[in-house]
Design a protein that fits this description.
The chain has 399 residues and is α/β, with parallel strands linked by helices. It folds into 3 domains: 63 residues, PUA domain (Archaeosine Trna-guanine Transglycosylase, Chain: A, domain 4, Roll); 121 residues, RNA methyltransferase domain (HRMD) like (Transcription Regulator spoIIAA, 2-Layer Sandwich); 187 residues, Rossmann fold, CATH 3.40.50.150. It contains 10 helices and 19 strands. The strands form 4 sheets. A 7-stranded mixed beta sheet has the order 15-14-13-16-17-19-18, sandwiched between helices. Helix 5 packs parallel to helix 6 and helix 9 crosses helix 10. It is globular and about 65 Å long. The termini are far apart.
């Protein structure tokens, strides 16, 4: 809280549109707003009031369906002290989780948007570099200030900050965003996860460079993998494959349609386990591979990209999940294990289970749920924003 408050533009809600804000949901949709004040620009900090003039929240204004991303439900001066307090809170939580430079895992998410009270902002840590990804114009405007604060508050744990917002900041804002270093420099960055080493490609890697949200699920795979013949589909740069080898798998095959991803998978296997590792990688379509597998597998990993990013394609996505899981279930022997995931936010946990249930029935297999999986604690879900629980997973035993 700060003594002197700036005069932020005021937005008013239409009558009866304040319920979700009072329930502390961090988004205000454009249809809830009364006519906007003249001169309002995208990315500005605004204050939101109900139709009677009562203050409700402070946030970033943006053009689109989500018109305000809420930063605070109390009046605040959104300046350096406010950002410092939010970053310090996030750092403190990650250190309580045992993540950071001192342990065997130094790749983790430091800021997870709504889950950390900063909707529109992602910050991931890979060893000595922090990667900022802005999903709103408001955070894009303050990214340099945030980068300086991160270096200061991390006290030597990071030496560089990379901005990877070109593909995520709203393109209609006309910002001409370019990925690149805000502070420091470097070509190759190395990170560790559960004692395993990965080379992170900041410029070309998906998301911020790696799929950090599967960290604990990779550890679960290592637990199950001993003695198994493992197929890892949609492997990207081989995270689940490396975990399976760490867990003592008898054989691991990695499949991805991207040849660069397959080359990076091979490099990660070589670096962590040497040239004699029981591993082979295939640059091919996963559906084609499942139709004609070159070996028999008793543990299969299905970790596809989001089949549905919008509700309008949800039905098609459900069919895709059914088709994919049926193919895997049909090829697994009795006693086999299936790790299956959905990272689509609009594919709810119930809808995903329904798709897998249908696939099992179509395959004529008896299937039991051994474990239910989600995203790790450094990807927290605000209790007021259940949409943040995007990653769903099941470990299935197949008879």
């Amino acid at each position: 809280m700060h003594r002197f408050m700036p005069a932020y533009p005021r937005l008013h809600l239409l009558p009866g549109k304040d319920r979700s804000v009072r329930r502390r949901h961090p988004w205000i949709f454009s249809g809830a707003l009364a006519p906007l004040p003249e001169g309002l620009t995208e990315g500005e900090v605004v204050e939101v009031y109900d139709d009677a003039g009562e203050y409700l929240a402070t946030g970033h204004y943006q053009i689109g369906s989500i018109a305000v991303r809420i930063l605070s439900f109390a009046k605040v001066d959104v300046a350096a002290p406010f950002w410092r307090e939010q970053l310090e809170r996030a750092i403190r939580w990650r250190r309580q989780l045992g993540l950071g430079s001192q342990g065997e895992t130094n790749m983790y998410r430091l800021i997870h948007g709504e889950g950390d009270g900063l909707p529109g902002l992602i910050v991931d840590i890979y060893g000595k570099v922090a990667v900022i990804q802005c999903h709103s114009v408001g955070f894009f405007h303050v990214r340099a200030e945030l980068a300086s604060l991160l270096v200061e508050l991390m006290a030597g744990d990071i030496t560089a900050v990379y901005d990877k917002s070109a593909a995520t900041v709203p393109y209609k804002a006309g910002l001409d965003a370019q990925d690149g270093f805000l502070l420091g420099s470097g070509d190759t960055w190395t990170g560790q996860e559960h004692g395993l080493t990965y080379q992170i490609d900041l410029a070309e890697g998906q998301k911020t460079g790696f799929f950090l949200d599967q960290r604990e699920n990779r550890a679960r795979l290592a637990h199950y993998a001993r003695g198994h013949k493992v197929l890892n589909t949609f492997c990207y740069t081989g995270g689940f494959s490396i975990a399976a080898l760490q867990g003592g798998a008898a054989l691991v095959h990695s499949v991805d349609s991207s040849r660069p991803a397959i080359e990076r998978t091979r490099a990660h296997v070589l670096h962590n386990f040497g040239p004699e590792a029981a591993h082979e990688a295939f640059a091919t379509d996963a559906f084609d591979f499942l139709a004609k597998p070159p070996a028999e597998y008793d543990l299969v990993v299905l970790d596809p990209p989001a089949f549905a990013k919008h509700r309008k394609v949800l039905d098609r996505a459900r069919k895709g999940y059914r088709r994919l899981n049926r193919a895997a279930l049909e090829m697994l022997p009795p006693g086999g294990i299936l790790f299956t995931f959905s990272c689509s936010q609009v594919m709810t946990r119930d809808l995903f289970r329904e798709a897998v249930f249908t696939a099992a029935a179509q395959a004529g297999r008896r299937v039991r749920i051994l474990e239910q999986l989600s995203q790790p604690a450094d990807h927290p879900v605000s209790i007021y924003h259940p949409e943040g629980e995007y990653l769903k997973g099941l470990i299935l035993g197949v008879e």
